[in-house]
Design brief:
Layout lengths: L1 E7 L9 E7 L2 E7 L17 H5 L9 E3 L8 E3 L2 H19 L4 E5 L6 H6 L3 H6 L3 E3 L5 H11 L15 E5 L3 H4 L4 H9 L3 E5 L5 H4 L3 E3 L6 H14 L5 H7 E2 L1 H7 L5 H8 L3 H13 L3 E5 L9 H14 L9 E3 L10 H5 L10 E3 L3 H8 L7 E5 L3 H4 L3 H8 L5 E6 L11 E4 L8 E4 L5 E5 L12 H11 L11 H15 L8 H7 L1 E3 L20 E2 L3 H5 L27 E4 L15 H7 L3 E4 L1 H6 L7 E6 L2 E9 L7 E3 L41 E6 L3
Parallel strand pairs: 6-15, 7-14, 8-9, 8-12, 9-10, 11-21, 12-13, 15-16, 16-17, 22-26, 23-25
Antiparallel strand pairs: 1-2, 2-3, 4-5, 4-17, 18-19, 19-20, 22-27, 23-26, 24-25, 24-27
Helix pairs in contact: 5-14, 9-12, 9-13, 9-14, 12-13, 16-18
The structure holds ligand MGD (2 copies), iron/sulfur cluster and molybdenum atom.
Molybdenum atom binds next to loops.
Length: about 700
């Protein structure tokens, strides 16, 4: 008998596709995009198309494991679930008795974005136990904060609305790889005569399809936006009436613009004055105009202010609230799940202190004390490969007195350091509800097949741990459907966009649209900020001692040279998305690894020549934090001074490993924080590059 089971792609991607799994005799035999899903339209991206290779990968973990070698060696012996859970319980009881529950740090991120398997699993059990909280700032914290401060909420136009835009600026965002279902609508716009401009130091797949590609020096986009604003106002192309009516702090911003004449912005950004003037003119003269951003753009020390400056532009031209105009960032704030139904904090001890995930290595090696972190529980994340300053994380994970548990589908770089490894289910083996962050559809994920081996979902494992720790509250022991019902009912009681959205309906229709009052964000020109307007001036920033106006400051940039300090100047290393992986997920899948080729470093011909680097040579990419080795690709696709190596590689698969256990780019990236919201700064990373002479 053939069954067709509807589900949702759980991976970190704004598209959150509807998927269909065909199951025969308990085996998934076919997997494809739901043709009836408005966003998916029956096709999936290159990485998830071969999903059954991921689900039935021969390396899938099938049983719990206990470490038998040194930490990091990846040597384990199989144990039973009962042994694993009781050992975790014993260790935690001892640790809690000595240091308190805050000495336990749960660490999770974006393996799955499901409401239950991520959202609820991040909160309920850990709140009940009283562990430390994780400050989840690795991805887009600064942009999220800056957008909320400026326009009040992450609301965005529909992908399809871009088809009627006349000008689109895709700013530090690579949707061909990272939001593929946006692209057919953009192509349609282009066919209708829309001009597409991509601003990125690298000529990405998205830039290749643009009408104009502009490549500024990384981290200078805030200055570029201010320079555009300067030109627009100097030429009186701004919408004075709109600004007077709908913005707060316009006069202060206007005065600030005097600091950003094009000649000065040209020096900061490495662009010509004419480029800045033309960009400003085209943006102001062509309407409706849309600016599309995501998170790669703000993963640097200037992240928050960069986004504040960009958010000011649609206000200058009165584009917020216009059909096919404004800002397309994220739809995340339409859905506000009932917090208490999700987290049950009222039934828990006070929340523990917060530890910034970007500082994991530092936190494990002394930055966090009183109590120190004595146990780490990692699920849905792979910090050894995905978090910054990997060398310091490795040092922390090697601590003899740290008890580490990793719950994953695979023996990742992080799992190699675990004391106990637990096997996780894939999305086909679990139930969940997923919402998109690029659209406004909810998609129910029905479990399609039985778990492989003894794999268990996040929620199932936390239930076992709750029992082990003696917690019998019903909200720790519900089925996934019961959790979903509780959250949906509580949310719809207070939110009109959820009226009529029930679990039954989700199961029947598979994907359901939110009851939005209107499809155009801010069409009523009501902005959910304290002033109700676009806050060009932010009193909340001023209160924190931060610059209340958008702008660009010459911050002390990352500079941590190796010793001895090389004579050649450093280069800026950008490590955005790989086309065929999602962060480190799928970067162990043979067919996709083949398509991404050998781990590489794109370098401009001038920078290569100055270092006697030839195309195809192995290079050492290093700074004071660490190094990795990559294959040089000499190309004009990157601007001089910038090198690029996409994220996602597993250190253990490093083809250049030479008795050092293998490395990836995160052995060089910085764990300093950005100007706002504790944001990561992967892209503020200066490296020195030389030919590998070994
Ligand atoms: N295929 C694929 N898709 C993904 C992911 C993946 O790993 N692979 N990851 C998912 C996740 S976790 C996220 S957060 C999103 C991210 O989605 P995006 O933000 O689109 O992805 P990134 O590649 O991180 O960054 C986009 C671009 O920003 C550029 N950039 C970096 N610094 C600067 C700068 O200072 N100025 C300018 N103008 N550009 C800059 C980079 O060169 C890169 O091309 O994608 C999601 N989708
Ligand atoms: N150099 C560099 N590094 C970066 C970035 C960058 O731009 N440059 N970007 C950063 C960004 S934007 C992000 S979001 C982070 C992501 O950082 P992480 O979330 O730490 O990394 P992922 O690679 O997404 O790891 C997800 C892990 O979860 C596992 N997993 C998947 N589903 C489940 C499940 O249901 N249960 C359990 N228990 N495990 C599951 C996967 O097998 C995988 O090992 O990476 C960051 N890393
Ligand atoms: S990763 Fe994105 S585009 Fe690919 S299947 Fe999942 S939701 Fe769709
Ligand atoms: Mo991310």
């Amino acid at each position: 008998m053939l069954e067709k089971i509807h589900g949702a792609c759980p991976h970190d991607c704004p598209d959150t596709c509807g998927v269909i799994t065909e199951v025969k005799n308990g085996q998934a035999i076919k997997f494809y995009g739901d043709p009836e899903h408005t966003i998916t339209q029956g096709w999936l991206c290159a990485k998830v198309r071969p999903y059954l290779e991921h689900v039935y990968h021969p390396d899938r973990l099938q049983t719990p494991l206990r470490r038998i070698g040194s930490k990091g060696a990846g040597k384990f012996a199989e144990i039973s679930w009962a042994e694993a859970i009781s050992e975790i319980g014993q260790q935690w009881r001892t640790i809690i008795a000595k240091h308190g529950a805050e000495s336990i740090l749960p660490y999770s991120y974006s393996g799955t974005l499901g409401l239950v398997q991520m959202g609820v699993c991040n909160t309920r059990f850990w709140n009940r136990l009283g562990t430390s909280q994780l400050e989840r700032a690795i991805c887009g914290a600064a942009a999220e904060y800056a957008v909320q401060l400026t326009i009040g909420a992450r609301h965005a136009p529909r992908y399809q609305d871009v088809a009627d835009s006349r000008l689109v600026i895709i700013w530090g965002n690579n949707p061909v790889s990272t939001a593929p279902h946006f692209m057919p609508h953009l192509k349609k716009a282009q066919r209708n005569g829309c001009r597409v401009i991509v601003i990125d130091p690298r000529c990405t797949r998205t830039a290749r399809g643009a009408d104009w590609h502009i490549a500024p020096i990384p981290g200078t986009d805030g200055a570029l936006a201010m320079g555009m604003a300067h030109v627009i106002v100097a030429q009186n192309q701004h919408d004075e009436a709109w600004l007077q009516q709908n913005s707060f702090g316009w006069n202060q911003l206007r005065a600030r613009l005097a600091d950003y004449p094009p000649e000065q912005v040209a020096t900061i950004t490495g662009l010509s004055e004419q480029t800045i003037i033309d960009l400003a003119n085209q943006y102001a003269a062509t309407r409706p105009s849309m600016i599309k951003i995501a998170d790669g753009l703000q993963r640097n020390r200037h992240g928050g202010q960069t986004i504040r400056a960009i958010c000011a532009l649609p206000a200058l031209t009165g584009q917020y609230g216009q059909p096919s105009g404004g800002l397309m960032y994220s739809t995340s704030d339409y859905v506000k799940w009932d917090r208490e139904a999700m987290r049950h904090t009222a039934d828990c001890p006070p929340l523990g202190r917060s530890v910034n995930m970007n500082r994991l290595g530092a936190a494990l090696t002394g930055e966090v004390s009183d109590p120190p972190i004595q146990s780490l529980y990692v699920f849905g994340a792979n910090p050894m490969a995905a978090s910054p300053n990997a060398g310091l994380i490795a040092k922390g994970l090697q601590r003899d007195d740290l008890f580490t548990v990793v719950h994953d589908l695979f023996l990742t770089d992080t799992a190699d350091y675990a004391d106990i490894v637990l096997p996780a289910t894939s999305q086909l083996e679990q139930t969940d509800l997923n919402k998109g962050y690029g659209h406004t559809w909810l998609t129910y994920n029905q479990q399609a097949i039985e778990p492989l081996g003894q794999a268990k979902s996040n929620w199932q494992v936390l239930q076992l741990l709750a029992t082990e720790m003696g917690f019998d509250e019903p909200w720790l022991h519900q089925s996934v459907d019961e959790v979903l019902t509780e959250i949906l009912e509580a949310t719809s009681a207070n939110s009109s966009i959820f009226v009529g959205i029930t679990l039954e309906r989700l199961k029947k229709e598979h994907t359901v649209h939110l009851n939005l009052p209107h499809e155009i964000p801010f069409v009523d020109l009501q902005f959910p900020t304290p002033s109700g307007k676009v806050e060009l001036y932010s009193a909340r920033l001023a209160q924190q001692g931060l610059d209340p106006l958008p702008g660009w400051q010459d911050l002390s940039e990352d500079y941590a040279p190796p010793t001895p300090e090389p004579t050649m100047p450093p280069l800026s290393l950008l490590t955005g998305a790989a086309h065929h992986f999602t962060s480190t997920s799928f970067a162990n899948q043979a067919s996709l690894l083949k398509r991404e080729n050998t781990p590489f470093l794109e370098i401009h011909p001038d920078d290569a020549a100055a270092r006697q680097i030839m195309d195809g040579q192995t290079v050492v990419v290093e700074n004071g934090r660490g190094y990795c080795k990559l294959k040089a690709v000499v190309t004009e696709a990157v601007r001089p001074g910038v090198v690029v190596s996409p994220k996602g590689r597993w250190s253990k698969f490093d083809p250049f490993a030479n008795g050092d256990g293998g490395r990836n780019v995160n052995w060089t990236t910085s764990d300093e924080l950005a100007d706002m919201a504790g944001q990561s700064t992967f892209h503020s990373n200066r490296v020195w590059v030389r030919v590998d002479n070994e």
